[in-house]
Here is the input.
Amino acid sequence: MSDASGYEYDGGTEISPIDEAEVRAAVRQDLDRGITSFVVSGVFSPVNSSQETRVKQILEDEIHQASTEGGKPIQAHITLSHEVAQLGILERENAAILNAALRPLAAQLIPAFQEAMQGAGIGGRLFLTSNDGTLISAEAAMQAPIVTFQSGPVNSLRGAVFLSGMKDGLVIDIGGTTTDVGVLINGLPRPAAATVDIAGVRTNFALPDVLSIGLGGGSHVEWRKQNGTCDVGPQSVGHELTSKALAAGGNACTATDVAVLLRKMEFGDVPVVVVGGGAALCNDSLEGASSVIRPPFASVANAVGAAIPQVSGMVDGVYALGGGGEHRARVLAEAEAAAKAQAVAAGAHSDTCQTVVKDEIPLAYVPGGVARVHIRVVGDLKYLAHTAASMSPPESQPAVGSMTDKATKESISDRQATHAEASGCGILGTGGGGSPYINRLKVMRELDRGGVIRVISADTVPDEAMVAEAGGMGAPTVGCEKLDAFECEAALRAHAAADPLKRPLHAVMSCEIGGGNGLEPLAIGARMGSPIVDAGFMGRAFPEVQMMTSAIYGHSLTPAALADEKGNVVVVQHCASPQWLERLLRPVCTAMGCAAGLSTAPLTGRELRRVAVKGTVSLAWRLGRAVIGARDAKADAVRAAAAEGGGNVLFTGKITDVERATSEGFARGHFSVEDLQDNRGQLMTIQFQNENLVAHVNGRLVLSVPDLICCLATDGGQALQTEDLRYGLRVSIVGLPAHPLLRTPEALEVVGPAAFGYDNLHATAHKCSVN
Here is the structure.
């Protein structure tokens, strides 16, 4: 069933009401087909879950009626997406679907384990370890088994904290077949990035940032004398290490034997706790580590971690924090209280609850100080008396249940090429522009439907042929939750309807190549059968429409059309200036739910060649291809991107500070990166307004707009948006040169440092690397 229901970002405005008749009919149809696992997912359900909860009630009612009519109970499972994962509807749906697939298995295993406990005379209530390093009840785990998905490695991290007393540092858990490496922050595992791919499926439920390597103490090492290389794993002697390794008198060459021979490992300048059965492989000192701790009972750290009696509660939603300091403090206190209430409901003793995560990320382009707030509270598990209900055998479990409610041409015609294009668009977004991920899915959908992507050079467009740009307008965070449909096409059709000459549209193009808007024309062109011009009006991402080169060089942006998913279309026929168009459209976009499709006035091929930045689509593809190729070859993806874009790696280090605030609808702030390599003590600070604007090293200006300041993950070269930045990330800053059309005096007035409030700075010419 597909129903565009849910809420706008404010959590109070319904996108559309639930069609209960459609829900009931769909459930009956699924039950007739033998389907008994259901997922309910609504737009912005982590902010307002009432529609998901109501659909669950309808499902339960229909399942009960079907059970009565059939004369036997139907064992069904219902997963509500807001109970499983966070903001980001596609990732949350994927996580919920994975959870639904695991629930039948959990419904068998967990009660069987409880029954085995009873048979062994073990009294007490069963808890399972979760991905975040705390415990959840057996009942909750049956409803959301996915939250235990990677609890194994986390147990070792928690055990290392307990055994060593260290709360911040690195933990290495060396087993027989694998080695897990994780980071501790304030005694808890550092969470992974906002999205995590599992077997190629992108999800966003809470997972720890743990690197698992198929290399354990017992991994086989096979030497190839003919070329001087060796293969490590995947075979392992496992628990027979002490008898089969060469160092133990056996005949199998293992990683343990290599470690005994070399006795050398390298890490960053942090304390390291070594645990696991292979902990003895490490020296008492490791090069680059400030200290090495091998605590007593290190071999059983995993079991120790699993026994730590703490539970947690979490809030992840969108809140209006404007209206003064008192209002902001009250709203945050209420959110924190809600997270604490969840922890208490999970079994925490109220007096022991502590807030361990409190993040606030402003929503760009949204007025009123609206921000995404993420709070996590951890508390000690209070004593819970054993009850018969908690140990019920499988047949007494309810049939339906849920967790407790919470308040470039032909080369861009295959999936691999769209991956490269999306990667390049992310880099050219310079921290803004929105994630290209969803737009890439739209492109692949059109390819699967038989659509064709035909990219043409701007030089081949006939002089009088009409070309129009189209893309999304709104807040990137909203766009990750409220998926766009055909709003951009609606905006394009508004131009056709308003054109008195009824001139046909020859091709489409992007306004900005950076971020998701760089891919939107590919989906539009494939769906409409129109070619895509290899050009754009920014050559990167910028936050406002007057920063388009078409506007800078005198092409009128009106009539401009803005459309939403409800069928509303607003056309601005004329405005005093491009800046006025921005001022007029932003409030309308907010009224449309902070997500709309925009298309400014079409232009002829002759005008296009005068005002457009040429070659943007192919540039993005080449950048992405360079990164993916380097990654596959295990080469330096960051340097590959810099070289392909004609730029340099400016800085590499660790993010040590991030500050954000909303001002005039923009996410403004800065982040700092500390050099951890050759130039220790150097600090790069980057100011941003949605996109990265100005970079200094120890107070010295290094690069500024309009040149591109791109923040990439050091490991793999993935582009990072400003809302993804957090303490501890290892990043590399790449500088790429702006297109000459952005460096003229008239352009610098609109996109140079002064246009963003840096009146005392002059635009820099692209510079060489500083480290």
Notes: The chain has five domains: 6-120, 151-303, 310-380, 409-618, 637-756. The chain has a mean pLDDT of 85. The CA atoms of residues 321 and 328 lie 5 Å apart. The first strand starts at residue 6 and ends at 7.
